[in-house]
Amino acid sequence: MDRILVLDFGGQYAHLIxxxxxxxxxxxxIVPGETKxxxxxxxxxxxxxxxxxxxxxxxxxxxxxAIFELKMPILGLCYGHQLxxxxxxxxxTPGSRKEYGKAELKVNDCxxxxxxxxxxxxWMSHGDLVEEVPEGFEIIGSTEDCKxxxxxxxxxxxxxxxxxxxxxxxxxxxxxxxIRMTGCRREWSMHSFLKEKIHELSRMEDDIFxxxxxxxxSTVCYALLKKAGCTVKGLHIDNGLLRMDxxxxxLKAMPEIDFFDAxxxxxxxLKDVANPEEKRRIIGDxxxxxxxxxxxxxxxxxWLLAQGTIYxxxxxxxxxxxxxxxxxxxxxxxxxxxxxxxxxVIEPISQLYKDEVxxxxxxxxxxxxxxxRHPFPGPGLAVRCLCSxxxxxxFKHEDNALISRLAAPLKAVIAPVSSVGVQGDARTYRHPAIxxxxxxxxxxxxxxxxxxxxxxxNRVMYMVSDGEPQLDLHRAFITKKRLxxxxxxxxxxxxxxxxxxxxxxxxxxIPMGGDYGESIILRPVMSREAMTATYAKLPLEDMRxxxxxxxxxxxxxxxxxxxxxxxxxxxxx
Length: 573
Ligand code: XMP
Description:
The protein is of the alpha/beta class. It is 30% helix and 24% strand. It is built from 18 helices and 25 strands. The structure holds xanthosine-5'-monophosphate (XMP).
């Protein structure tokens, strides 16, 4: 099938380019920026992504210079635009005025900008700029601060701005024009993806072993391998961190897969661990060890291991060579990376996003209820059961006075626990603010922006139980007792809201409180592909009622997370 390849130089939007092209029905694949030209020769066109570095900086990612000799259209975006200037002997300099955000582009007549107006809103995010175009190029667009915001030769184009983000309203039109110039046939659809994958997988001679958690991604992956006629053995591992009755339900839905109860093993390995990344590493490594052992026991030694990895798992785990680590997804721990390097792993849906995986699941004939299950993270309840290695009473954060002023007329305080967030493309690990008092959604919407005003916090939660927040932090790790409480509350909450249109509803247990020493956080979110999310706004009266019943299960306080992603992530760890 015809395709356009996206060379990834680490930009935060690199992955979006491929998604946008697929929406225009073109097969797009992301490859490392340094990929050798001969490996790219079969494509119809290339797009060079943005990136955080400077093109002349030592160690910054560089393309193979031979790519510019390939006889195909090339589009460079931001850093990619500057790479074109550097390699074809134009000039790039650090800009005296850096541009972030909205800009007005004065547009010249040219094929890339066909059907655009004379001025267009575009989205900029750069420090360096192209100061001289290479020989054979002309300027096709300028902004007030950037004379060479767009340049073109007969087949190579450079844009300083980002057509792939929604803040460039006509960006899709520009990408569409580029596609037309490549002559790439628009053959991509979920149907064609399925056909091509089946063709590719059915030619594989290896037997395949797949861990099936019962979640959407691994189940779709399993169904895909089966459809392709692969010899595939599915194994469901109970890691002791699943939701209530989860294993039972998975085995009922897929009776042919094998089952291995490794819960004691996982819980033993996690018994004194509080650090979130440490927990993730232990769980990921355990999965590899347990899978290897199970493969031996099942005489599947030497088989390929398949994973239902999807794109955000890779990007957030610093899976592309120049992106930042937000969190290590369980299928990206170092041990697994090693197996991938050795060519022992296949990941048939690794270029897709959640919304695309669901579409694929429906095409494969999986039931609607399965395909629309809420996503559940590989490390399971471990990332929703917060731990603490120490006791802390009377915690008073130095920004408490400031947060109270910013949150007024609501009361506010900073909590002693911390959670993972994603801010400015990088991981943060910071305290949340708790706001409390009488409020409606309008008041909470404005309060939810508090992390933009105060650097020491990355989340805001609203207290939906009565009284004052109880802030004593208790020494606590992952135990069966805590997991059992979390499971009970999770089941109760999710069955209470199951008719509501919510994308995902994590319930989190934190070792903070008074008599019981435990509190609960409700985290209902809306999302499309998990890269960004907003909090769902459920009726607060219902949440207050729910909170009372949750407290009766042995919980001190109940909070509702009102943080978008970014600055928070969906999960807390
Ligand atoms: P975050 O917390 O990064 O989550 O905003 C985005 C989505 O990914 C899920 N998630 C995971 N899924 N392995 C997975 O398979 C993981 O390690 C993992 N961590 C987070 C999360 O539930 C949400 O849907």
